[in-house]
Amino acid sequence: MAFALKASPSMSSTATSLSHPMRQRHAAAVPVATRRGRLVVRAVAAVTAPAPAARRASQSAAGERGLSVAEAMSRVKANGKTAFIPYITAADPDLATTAEALRLLDSLGPDVIELGMPFSDPSFDGPVIQASAARALAAGATTDAVMSMLKEVTPELSCPVVIFSYFNPIVRRGTGNFAAAAKEAGVKGLIIPDLPYDEIHGFRKETAENKLELVSVVGVTGARATVNPRVKDLLQEIRQVTDKAVAVGFGISTLEHVSQIAGWSADGVIIGSAMVKQLGEANSPKEGLNRLEVYARSLKNALP
Hints:
seven-stranded parallel beta sheet, two-stranded antiparallel ribbon, single chain, TIM Barrel
């Protein structure tokens, strides 16, 4: 699994206030700040699941092999490319549109797709994704419904899908049950931005059968005018302590951003809020899908 480096507007400032009771209880254990010039990052988790048994004949060879996220990133790195990792929110504006958006994005050749699980207190997300989650929940989105949709769609996709979920919905369902549901839905990974530090050991033990891996993340989502130049140095610092792939996200929204991050030798770029806006600001699902295709294609084509 790749390390995910999220570029925040100020690397020395903390993330948003952890207003949820669960996060208040553990906030001191997982600071997001700089200490003596070194970045302290929050741990999140990724659980790699087996590929679904059924595969459509139209799938690519990569899809038929059921590439894990780590394998997909390794392949990109071996080819000297930069991974393209789009993010959208599940069920915004509805699950049928999300299913079509996943198919559309997959047709453009992404290396990984992140799918956000709607949550009522998305404190690590900026206003665009917060509004997107609110719309999805208002429309009746549930974890079960999202998993059911994914179970139908993932066999058609040629790239791995990773769920981005806050910890509270996972705890409510039970970590083992949530991981099992993700496996059954064909999901390849799970990112938990607010996984408390003192929960990591227990979470890893409970999900060991699902091949749990740990990655790191810092920052709050949202498109920005510029990418923090500190990211360039941080990339080099991370490479001194790991040989895992490093993807940069949070704030990536323009062709210039994509080219800049690729030029800094990041292994991948993650585009979230700007992708979500294409669907969320459209007057209809059809218009949103058209906007998403044009925008995603332009960023994909900007990558080396």
